[in-house]
Amino acid sequence: MLPVYYSPLRKFWHYALRVIVALVLLFLIFPILVTVPLSFNSEPFFTFTEGMLKLDPEAYSTKWYVEFFTDKKWNIALKNSFYFAIMSTILATILGTVAAVGLASDRMPFKSVITAILISPMIVPLVIIAAGMYFFYSVIDIAGTDFGIIVAHAMLGTPFVVITVTATLAGFDKSLLRASSSLGANPVTTFLKVTFPLIRPGVISGALFAFVTSFDEVVLIIFLADPDQRTIPRQMFSGLREQINPTILAAASLLILISVILLFTIELLRRRSENQGIFDS
Amino acid sequence: MENTQTTDDDLSLTSEHTRKYNQAIRREKNKALLLVLPLFFFLLVFFITPIGFMLYRSFYNPTVSNLVPKTIEKLEQWKDISRLPNEETFKTLAYEIKGLQKTRKSGKFAEEVNRRLPQTGSVIKRTARKIKKVDLDKVANYQKLLTSIHKKWGSPAIWTGIRSAGDKLTINYYANALDYKLLPTGEIVKQPEEQRVYLPILKRTFYIAFIITLLTFILGYPVAYYLSLIPLKKASVLLIFVLLPFWTSLLVRTTAWIAILQSNGVINKTLLYFNFIDKPLEIIYNQFSTILAMTHILLPFMILPLYSVMKGIDPSYVRASQSLGANPFMSFIKVYFPLSLPGLSAGSLLVFIIAIGYYITPALIGGVDGQLISNLVAHHMRSTNNWELAAALGSVLLVLIMVLYWVYDRLVGASNIKL
Fold it and tell me: Distance (Å, rounded) from C-alpha B105 to C-alpha A270?
């Protein structure tokens, strides 16, 4: 119930705000909601058929999912996507975590400049990075290699790891490090036994961000990858340009499923790290 | 354990203490630097160096001087450009074109010169074709030979064209990228109105990015405001609506917009069904669809920083202003809105920076008038093979982004990006 002293205008704004918010949230979620049912279309179209609207079971089918999992091109793409994403995530997470631990030190010189540099891969447009790498890779002769793709994707993922790990380290009580070393632990033991368990939520969410960055990335793949290195987004990109068919929607729905899983994992981690008493919010 | 402070009345630090203290500080500093070093080095090799290569490529093009090195050498000694170069130069070029014809590189040479001086490519191609059958060792007058193949060899213009195409270092591509043209004489003039392509697209990129920033503000501000008012439990449920699109692949969201907007897509079908329209609206493959889809994609980047700032605004300020007599509207404008500005500037800059470099969505649903500067860079890389122009356009974009990033770092701080 609204307070009785609210003026009619105030009441109007009260409801208007809620309507606007509902509409914007609908706008945000609508495209995702549309994609999933469309992927069960039995016709080779990107649109709801009459049968689908009448909820006729005949109009629905899982054949595009069968197509996705049996077609050779999509299979290669699926395998490549996971391979590049996992390898680049490992590389990005190690480099990013170590750097974040250094950045969090009070004694770090040129902190703001270095932070700005380490985060810049997130800011520079992908087309520019792609153009630069295209020249560079042909000079150092790693064009079309898996190594080239993995380091490129790892590079894009590092800023996310740096940001998330730095954020967890911000609430980190440094006297724990002194306590650990006064009890005789060397720096490596201290890191593994004290620092790492405490920053683990940040490391994992950074790793998930790096994973998604690589898994979604398509511009660098377009410029740098060979046809047999194509990934799911690359396959979707060429599918959307050449012949649109609902296998793309099946792939899209599976990617939505992956993002739902990742989103909940991240939120769970965030909550867990907020509940640990050691961190100040 | 050593203790530098011995007693209360002996607080003075000796030089020995200072030295030890400084040493410890230095050790800490080095340790921190050492930890950052691997990533820094990694980025230096795989991020900064490639961009450096691109910058280098934007004003360095050795192609022509590699193809016809001797001719370029001769042309460098050619001083009086109102008259033709000497017979020796004609001879050298004739031999070099024949050599290129044999290795099938004459087309590349023609293409490169044509880029500098339009309508000369065909002259070189024709010359290469004819010269194939000529035994050059038996020619008495090379100038006569070339001018008989094409009369353009008899005017100095084409020679200045070859010479300037042979310049390894040139600002030509930057001039082109900004719709200027570098004449073979070294003058820089503005392109004729109808041939200006790049500045209009640059302007359009800014315009579209601005509109998108404005739209994300208009749509995002009420959402962030509302989320900051309601209890945390409820807010975190509603935040899923913001975070799920944020986590969903770009390609997925663009695909969804194609399914929604295409001529027999969700919107058109619905409107046709209810007889609101009698033929499908053209709402895809144009500027409208680019702006709509990019607004959708970038909206979370506005809502999240706004929300995190608004959550920290103490509601008692607004109550205080109202108890002092401000009406709700005034207290919003004078008190709440200024307090939310840090979130607004962070969100707007982020959205704007991402928008002006966008490639995928315009490439897929931008049609003709929705293409942005990034699409042009990609076009010159992939379709026309004009790498140098692509690099110059990319460098212009990079400078713009760097300026904006610097502003962002100043205003918000790069380390304050929240995920």
Answer: 60
